[in-house]
Amino acid sequence: MSLLKNLPHVLYILWMSSLYFAASTVNAATFNIRNNCPFTVWAAAVPGGGRQLGNGQTWILNVNAGTKGARIWARTNCNFDGAGRGRCQTGDCGGLLQCQGYGQPPNTLAEYALNQFNNLDFFDISLVDGFNVPMDFSPTSNGCTRGIKCTADINGQCPAQLRAPGGCNNPCTVFKTDQYCCNSGNCGPTDYSRFFKSRCPDAYSYPKDDATSTFTCQGGTNYRVVFCP
Q1: What is the mean pLDDT of each run of 10 residues along the chain (229 residues)?
Q2: Does residue 167 sit within a domain?
Q3: Interval 155-197: pLDDT, tens
Q4: What is the CA radius of gyration of the chain?
């Protein structure tokens, strides 16, 4: 009898659970990651892992609603064994094909957080960890149309002090000082951050470059990330 008495409550809980599951499914995002570079890249994602992509190949990544602190990037000049262990010249994540943590600079980053304040997605391209390949990061659904790109020849024009094999370092990687906002405290743009900002105006050029570098879409939007657009 007690089960029958509680049946309406049980049904209500099941109904609410189904609504929550449906909402989570609706608000989850699909990322279409494509390599347009004339060379192979090893795409990396946290969450997500990693995938080798030849020219023209894509990787479809489904990400749970509410995910934050997420990144997608390209690794270059990698060599992995059959067990998925090896190294990459840029963007290496602990020597693993299937990344479990962030990559090693220099690497161009697509960063995002889903379903945050007011159910908004926040996304950006960041050069705070430097640059290795050009990138396009754009919404593809939900009526959101403002995408961001960083397609300049930053590697070819990189200041001598920031040059690295396969990429261009951000000054924090090289100097690690407060002057470049590498730690907490008051700081602002520098000649090095202006080098990045002048070439990729929509991208983060230093850690406090929020005002012109963070973009939003309604939760439930899908996205594309293109290497060498």
Answers
A1: 43 40 59 98 98 98 97 98 97 98 97 97 97 98 96 97 97 90 82 96 90 93 98
A2: yes
A3: 999 999 999 999 999 998 999 888 898 876 788 899 999 999 9
A4: 20
pTM for this prediction: 0.87
d(CA 13, CA 180): 52
Say which amino acid occupies 134.
P
Taking the alpha carbons at both ends of the chain, their separation in whole angstroms is 65
Residue 163 lies in a domain: yes
**Would you say 132 and 214 are in contact if contact means Cβ atoms under 8 Å apart?**
no
Q: Which structural domain range is residue 181 located in?
A: 28-227
Nearest-5° angle of CA 39, CA 44, CA 47? 160
Contact 89, 59 (CB under 8 A): no
Omega before 47 cis (within 30°)?
A: yes
